[in-house]
Amino acid sequence: MPPPIQAWESKPLAAGLYLVATPIGAARDITLRALDILASADLLAAEDTRTLRHLMEIHGIPLNGRAIIPCHDHNESAASPRLLRAVAEGKSVAYASEAGTPLVSDPGFVIAREAVAQGLPVLAAPGASAVLCALAVAGLPADRFHFAGFPPAARSARLRFLEDLRQIQATLVLYESPKRLAALLADLASVMGAHRQGVVCRELTKRFEEVIRATLGDLAAMIAEREVKGEIVVLIDRAAPDAADSATWEEALDQALQTLSVKDAAAMVAEAFDLPRRDVYQVALSRAKAR
Length: 291
What we know:
Elements: E1 16-20, H1 32-40, E2 43-46, H2 49-58, E3 68-70, H3 76-88, E4 92-96, H4 109-117, E5 122-125, H5 130-138, E6 145-149, H6 155-165, E7 171-176, H7 181-192, E8 197-202, E9 210-215, H8 216-224, E10 232-236, H9 243-257, H10 262-273, H11 277-290
Parallel strand pairs: 1-4, 1-5, 2-3, 2-4, 6-7
Antiparallel strand pairs: 7-10, 8-9, 8-10
Keywords: Cytoplasm, Methyltransferase, rRNA processing, S-adenosyl-L-methionine, Transferase
EC number: 2.1.1.198
Main location: cytoplasm
């Protein structure tokens, strides 16, 4: 029997800072290019050195004497100069977050921004992201979304945070701790409306993956009765324009339809009022048919 095919390839890498996306659950979700970079980089850095070491062991990538330098929320500013000095000296540095894509609610921004400021090469090895994975399975519009990260833990700050998001014309994506999920959903139902659609994604790509789709009011009631564990992503459907705004843009749409086609009128009004083009087009189409 022939030996198994090795998924990764060790080959010289050009100098640069490589931001490597790692799986959010299933270890096989890593890309072949990410494996190549982890096998080939002169220097390795990670948000969690144990997690990266385990991931490399799963895929049979040897360290070959390389150390894995910790670079996380608490030491990124201190660790960055050493890593960037290596890049400036012509070495390749691979940086991996604990799970997902660096910079997306994970460390990596400080070192990436400083590398750009110094004129050093910054390269991405794209891959898993809980934001995009959640959008894919949620069933909510994904043509425009707003990722807002983790809400504040304190309730007064969280309510102000949610109020600022309330009228954004995009699907909202939040991360949350399972311990605070019930409180967040209750506040979402209060601030954004109990009948607004939402989705709770738990443990995406993992063994106990779960996706719950319901109104924010129903989600709050369901989660209040449960003990929740695991990684959580919460999505909220885009806001409906309020009555005053609706009257304004619909008046503009009526005027545009006098001289433009349905498609062009909808596109112009959607852009002018920062509205979903699909929604405006449906209104324009119904008004054109009524004439």
